[in-house]
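Hello K.,

You asked for the raw outputs rather than the summary table, so here they are, unedited. I folded two proteins back to back in the same session to keep the settings identical. This is the first:
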Amino acid sequence: MGRMKRKKHLIKTPTKAPLSGTRMERKADPDYKQFWQDEHCNSNSRCMSTTNPNNVFRWFGMPHPTSNQIVLDIGVGTGEFATHCNDWGITVDCLDIAPAALSKVEQVARHGYLSAESLPANEYDVAIAMFVTQHVADNNLIHLITQVRRSLKRGGKLYIQFPTLQTMEPSIVENEGKPLEICRPPKEALSMLENRGLQAKEVGQRLTFPHVFLYFMEGTKP
């Protein structure tokens, strides 16, 4: 989790996938599981993300988790977020599709999960996903949100970050040597959360790479 290391970032002209009814179907790299497994196995940081958790809390406008809370880290990245949570005495579980990613945090995470279906129900006070959604196809993202909602306690919160272009148009951004990145406008992201039974709102945004905004959503389980 966290902010991606700044590097030369080649953005090609956004391409739109064919429309299916009124909804755009967007698909990420079909080999994305193997891609991320290889990245973690090779300790390749070019696509990993890292950021001080205090910045994550500030961007979401969220309180610092406390030692009596249980946190779900969605997308391990370099493992910095889980490590800090452990250092602060916060119980943290991790969800990632790559076994090699989970092996990085096995000393600091209480449990590691390879699939959202394996998450326990009504377990977490807070779930956080940074730099995850752009690599997840629509149907998989909807499934992820559904399972994370199930895993939250009543009143628990999902903090989730989405990227979008300045045009606010749905698109797929091609970054050379990296997986496709799916950009979704804020209204679409809010609908995804609300349609899965979360009370959703936008809590912040910031400009990162040229023409790319990050915006931050909070979804509460009623």
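The second followed immediately with the same parameters:
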Amino acid sequence: MGLLIVDKLDIIDCLEKNGHANMQIPDEKYVLPTHQSIQDFGARYGNFLFNSGLDKWLGDIWDCDDFSFTAKTLADIDNAIWKYKTGNKDSSLAFGMCFIQTKEGGHAISMAILQEEDGKLGVHYYEPQFQTTEEGINVCMLEKSRDSFLSPVFCYL
């Protein structure tokens, strides 16, 4: 799959089909990330958190919404650098944050709209805080199943 740019209405349609009723989608066109670009970003984002000393949850001082806002901001910076280098200045990145409801209460995570293998758009969710994989590796942007939370509350791209 090559670079895919979609309209705002395609993003809204995809989100609505996946149970998102409350959203802020401010731009008219979005470039879709790939699974690989999310993994690559997760490594850069994790290094940023570690090097800045913000790799751990610190209660209300540094918690889930701060991790999500920071991931969104750094992804937007990556996209702005890419746009500047390529001259593709008319699209934002289909990566943002999502406030969700879990059994434990509210939580903020990262989200992206990706093109699936069947060509359709799909919503993917990621934990922006460090998580330990089954192999014992600490990573950022570990994908979360939609079944891992009760409902999306609000999303922003």
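The two ends are 22 Å apart (CA to CA).

Happy to rerun anything if the numbers look odd on your end.

Regards,
P.
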